[in-house]
Amino acid sequence: MTEELVLIEKENAVGTVHLNRPDKLNALSPAMLSALADALEQLDVDKDIRVIIIAGSSNVFAAGADIEAMAKASPLEMKALGTRDYWLRMRRIDKPLIAAVSGYAFGGGCELALQCDLIVASETAQFAQPEIKLGIIPGAGGTQRLTKAIGPYRAMEMVLTGEAISAQEAYQHNLINRVVPVERYLDEAKELARLIAERPPVAVRMAREAVRRGVEYTLTDGMEVERRNFLLLFDTDDQAEGMNAFLEKRPPEFKGE
Ligand code: COA
């Protein structure tokens, strides 16, 4: 088990993917990204799972792309590593993703957290895009998602200096949802996951899509996605159940239909 690059844990409706390359600080080698994409896709089609957590260890979330795999590569060789495809596969995951971050979330590690819908961090978490110190720039969304998350000025500082920000700073910049003591971060992420898992899954998926599109689209286009998803939900059993349960003063039983 310990030799696997990622480990999957399932608990009720929550699936957790643990990054498991401790000797290299969970550096995201092509093999690691491939294993991660496989694990996420496996949980995405698992009918028992409603929310997915990506976690590292308490010391490190992930210290970025694997520098060893890139050190001598030409642009074409970098392209041939195929890492873009693994990132695209992760982007296509439909279920809510929560990053449980403790320690370093550097480079691709920071981008992996940014790819998630929610970020729960320990007080020891640090976020950085240090690629500039290696003579490159972020290549998995760091210049784009970070800018949308914390604004161009703060993102520019992180991308141009490569310096890390603490969990507290990340929280103040609206980069993350929660900061908790290190011994609590995974439990906190699981509690948040459980709360979302209790909600009607189709509505969760529609809501998630609307919020994610809102980041990418114009307001008018985003409003259209919201309206479409809002109306579609009136064709689900869970909408009838949610509203009837409220009127009958009982807890709802959502079936995901
Ligand atoms: N790629 C490949 N290997 C990495 C790595 C990465 N991104 N980050 C860490 N490692 C390896 C180190 O080479 C070392 O391997 P070794 O024991 O075989 O020599 C091992 O992980 C431990 O790392 P080390 O640097 O000794 O740990 P540290 O606690 O002193 O420092 C960091 C931790 C995160 C500050 C430091 O490892 C670091 O700066 N890593 C690179 C971060 C980065 O630039 N990421 C963006 C890549 S594009």
Describe the structure.
- This protein has 257 residues and is an alpha/beta fold.
- The chain folds into 2 domains: 2-197, 2-enoyl-CoA Hydratase, Chain A, domain 1; 201-248, Orthogonal Bundle (Lyase 2-enoyl-coa Hydratase, Chain  A, domain 2).
- It contains 12 helices and 10 strands.
- The chain has helices at residues 30-44, 67-70, 75-80, 83-91, 108-115, 142-150, 152-161, 167-172, 185-197, 201-216, 219-232, 237-247, and strands spanning 6-11, 14-19, 51-55, 60-62, 97-101, 104-106, 118-122, 126-128, 165-166, 178-180.
- The strands form 2 sheets. Strands 1-2-3-5-7-10 form a 6-stranded mixed β-sheet, sandwiched between helices. It has a 4-stranded mixed β-sheet with strand order 4-6-8-9.
- Strand 1 and strand 2 form a beta hairpin.
- Helix 1 (30-44) packs parallel to helix 4 and helix 6 (142-150) crosses helix 7.
- The longest helix is centred in the C-terminal third of the chain and has 16 residues, at 201-216.
- It is globular.
- The protein starts with 5 loop residues before the first strand and ends in a 10-residue tail after the last helix.
- The relative contact order is 0.11.
- The mean pLDDT is 96.
- Coenzyme A (COA) binds at residues 24-25, 27, 63-68, 104, 106-107, 130-131, 134.
- The site of coenzyme A has 15 residues, from helix 2 and strand 6.
